[in-house]
Amino acid sequence: FLPTPVSELATVLTACFDRLLRQLPRQLVYERAQPFGVPLAPASQPSWRTPPLALDSRFESGNLCRAHRVADVEYELLVASDTNSSNPGGQWFFFSVCGAQPGQRYTFHILNMAKHKALFREGQRPVLFSVNGAKEQGAGWKRQDVTNIHYYPNPFLKQPGAPSTESTFCSLTFTFTTPHAQDTLFLAYGHPYTHTELLLSLHALQKQHPQMQHYCSAQRLATTLGANLCHLLTITNPTREEDPPIPSRPVVILTARVHPGETSASWMMDGLLRFVLSADPVADTLRRRYVFKVVPMLNPDGVILGNNRCSLAGVDLNRQWQTPHPTLHPTIFRLKHYLSYLQNVEHRSILVFCDLHGHATQRDVFMYGCPTQLNSTFIEGFLPALLSQHVPFFSLASTSYQVQRNKEATGRVVVSKQLKVLSYTVEASLAGGAGLGELDLTEWNPEADSTPTAAAFTPDTVGHFTCQHYRTFGVALVKCLLLLSSRLAATSPLRMS
Question: Which is the catalytic residue, given 74, 262, 380, 427?
């Protein structure tokens, strides 16, 4: 990551505020509230040499609210606030662009970014997908076509009378280009992963592994406020003579995507599920020893709507675990009661609870835990320590076991304190990290005391994570469970330093 030169940032700031002071002409080119296919009301507009771009976000996970053309190839954008939320602005964005001229550089200014601390200041780039590029070259989401990134506070207040600390929005400015004519482009904060993509992925896995019907079942955990299904997957092998019976196998709880804008969580879950449901011998061993209870998407409403953090009810579901409401927070309410049922009615042993997230202001993958002690042993440190030994982009230094007051109602803390379960939040940077070599985990068997193969350092142009990095970490996470079980049973465990 390279910091933005001060001279460049000063130029961007000067141009932006100059426009505000001089009230340059503005042409409204997109309004989310406008019915699809109904043109905006014509108005007297200045004559520019290039045709206007056509922007849109009326699709799953899209969230562009409004766009104005303010110069020939320059546009100002507003992202939609989370549905029914009182918090203005956001960080997540996802929209499409049509009509870009080949080779022409266009500049976008997103004016209502909520966070003042962001890795866009240090080189993070948005992702861009070209429909023609995918058709002609098989290209996927790329970052190298998005350049000249600037992130800076602007004078627009988030709310009237807001306190002075971070009371204004920030602007994200970037330039992009396409080599293709008549192209449709998609721009997003990070690699999108929609609710539809989850359903298609699960369907594809069923076709790829017909035998998985014997060791994977799906059931409805809850119906959301938006009438969408939240699925619970149960993954374990049928009992064989040499295997422990299913009721005696430790239960592993894995959840993701409680915050819709944290798409890296879904990519980790995608890699995890692809591996655990495969015919790999280590995956078979995991299914013979454990029962996996997996909720791939805790907030499908928010994901579908293009929210950043909130559900359809306009609340952060990961702050509702202490007293979830059965109607307003159905997925959290049902999951919490289900975990209690497993413990108190079925008398099952829960090995670990892991909630997968994305992080906007820190690099690497790291974890948050809770300070659990068993016979003076710091057992919470086992799994992070194992991951740091086998995954070069996992940061033990960024891992923390402190519980701040504003995190008391999160899943990690409530499951740890009320259910006495080893509990973690897994955070994967939405930007990238330090040790971004391509890690090959295909032949790694943790019980054989081997180590994963790390190839040469091959990050993308500015050290971003790719979808494959996230998937790889998902595989590493479940493989390390085999080592975690033996570590918990060891006679010389890791002690608190």
Answer: 427
CA distance 99 to 70: 17
3-class SS letters over 12-80: HHHHHHHHHHHCCCCEEEEECCCCCCCCCCCCCCCCCCCCCCEEECCCCCCCEEEEEEEECCEEEEEEC
Please state, in angstroms and rounded to a whole number, the distance separating the CA atoms of residues 360 and 324.
26
Nearest-angstrom CA–CA distance, 342 and 127: 41
Distance separating alpha carbons of residues 73 and 233, to the nearest angstrom: 48
Q: Are strands 146-157 and 168-176 parallel, antiparallel or unpaired?
A: antiparallel
For the question of residue 438 being annotated catalytic, the response is no
Separation CA 326–CA 441 (nearest Å): 41
Query: What tokens does 259 get?
Result: 């915050």
Residue 385 dihedral angles phi and psi, to the nearest 5°: -65, -40
For the stretch 114-156, pLDDT in tens is 999 999 998 899 999 999 999 999 889 999 899 999 999 999 9
Q: What is the DSSP letter of 247?
A: G
Mind giving me the DSSP string for 103-136? Answer: T--EEEEEEEE--SS-GGGGT---EEEEHHHHHH
Torsion sign over Cα 161, 162, 166, 172: negative
Closest CA to 62 of 166, 161, 194, 150: 194
Region at 148 (left for phi over 0; alpha for psi -120 to 50; beta for the rest): left
- CB atoms near residue 389 (< 10 Å): 14
The pTM assigned to this predicted structure is 0.89
Percent of the chain with pLDDT over 90: 72
Residue 393 and residue 433 in contact, taking contact as beta carbons nearer than 8 Å: yes
Q: Measuring CA to CA, which residue among 28, 92, 106, 38 is closest to residue 64?
A: 92
Give the position of tokens 């996230």.
470
